[in-house]
Amino acid sequence: MISTCVFRVSVIAAVLSTALACTSRSQTPPPAQPTRPISSDSDSASPPPTQPAAWLVADTVARTAKLTLEVMAPSNSPSAVINGFRAGAARIVVPVSWTVQWDWRNADSGSPHSLVVMVQREKIPLEGGRPSFSNAMTRLVTEGLPTGHSDHSSFEAEEAGWYWMMCGVPGHALKGEWLELRVDPSARTARVETKK
């Protein structure tokens, strides 16, 4: 008799415990799922809008991206701009192993400028250094070319990654004189993306 009572009490306690657990679960909202901020530089983020850019011509047959780049210094900008963009506001995307050609011109009447492609690190360097790809630079990288001077360069974007196309004159890239270059193994053609 005692063992039957103990058994019944145990069963009743188990049923009540289960009922209470179910009731408390149904009244408690589920925990919020953590959301991961998506950086604009993340591969998983949706790409910035693609803009038709007259200054980039993609040739999928020849696997070539031709860029026409001009540096200017608007009075309302804290730095010189490349084709109207500064501080990575424009990203040039090219497939791996494409040839990138540029015609670059300094149209800033107040300062010398240059252009060099360097791999992105944690911080933009003070001045230009060794290019990431053979020949991916203008002449006189740290001295800069004077007003009205131009340069033509051609290089193969042989390694996927994120790069700066930056002015190599000391301090210029730190002020924002740079575009972003993405050598993308999944890209089928070259394009320009702009950040909002």
> What sequence of helices (H) and strands (E) makes up the elements?
HEEEEEEEEEEE
Estimated share of beta-strand residues: 25-35%
**Oligomeric category:** single chain
Radius of gyration: 29 Å
Sequence-ordered SSE layout with sheet pairings:
Elements: H1 2-27, E1 50-51, E2 56-59, E3 64-72, E4 81-82, E5 90-95, E6 99-106, E7 116-119, E8 150-156, E9 161-166, E10 178-184, E11 191-194
Parallel strand pairs: 3-6, 5-10
Antiparallel strand pairs: 1-11, 2-3, 3-4, 5-11, 6-8, 7-9, 9-10
Q: Brief description of this entry?
A:
With 196 residues, the protein is α+β, with helices and mostly antiparallel strands. It has one helix and eleven strands.
Could you explain how this protein is built, in words?
By secondary structure, this protein is α+β, with helices and mostly antiparallel strands. The protein is built from one helix and eleven strands. A hairpin with an 8-residue loop joins strand 3 (64-72) and strand 4. The chain is 13% helix and 30% strand. Strands 1-11-5-10-9-7 form a six-stranded mixed β-sheet, with no helix packed on it. The model is unreliable at 18-46 (pLDDT under 50).
List keywords for this structure.
196 residues, alpha+beta, six-stranded mixed beta sheet, five-stranded mixed beta sheet, 1 helix, 30% strand
